[in-house]
Predict the 3D structure of the following.
Amino acid sequence: DAGVIQSPRHEVTEMGQEVTLRCKPISGHDYLFWYRQTMMRGLELLIYFNNNVPIDDSGMPEDRFSAKMPNASFSTLKIQPSEPRDSAVYFCASRDRWIAGETGELFFGEGSRLTVL
Amino acid sequence: DQQVKQNSPSLSVQEGRISILNCDYTNSMFDYFLWYKKYPAEGPTFLISISSIKDKNEDGRFTVFLNKSAKHLSLHIVPSQPGDSAVYFCAASGTTSGTYKYIFGTGTRLKVLA
């Protein structure tokens, strides 16, 4: 089975440019999460979706960040305009529906490393 | 505020010895805890988990201990191997409160010396 697929793996852009990160979750998974990894904050949850609906976006740092999930097999995280402090590795993760009594494993993609100059 | 804390950013251990990684949490509504392992340029991968109704879970060389009263969990790796060198993240979720999200700590970089 294919895992969570993210693109691009690396992105270098200049301050002020729009950045779009893409994610294809594991087929059949109901939940999709976007995380950002930085040295200071570790893996920071930005937003998560359930059945394509955004449930909690309290981790989205600013209005410059937006995320969409138009269908069950695709999600985007957009930064417009980008700033140097947005430089980080962005991870997408997905999991199956929650079943009472089960922990459930979160499956991560390989990440998109963003560098904003 | 950091609800899940890993206060040791790094740890070095000799091969064959025990590695102990620690994690503290503040939210008493968390009821599931997980450990993830991350190699450079890869995504985190699941290692082991524990429910709040248990105080210990073991899987081969890996054991996770949970102390609910202290809001503390730890991961023991015995014996440690050079291939265990990675960044380890602990995570917590609170399904009974309807919070179906995973909160991660800042990670601990483990280096196992041959």
User: Anything to note?
Assistant: Residues 10 and 42 of chain B are 19 Å apart (CA to CA).
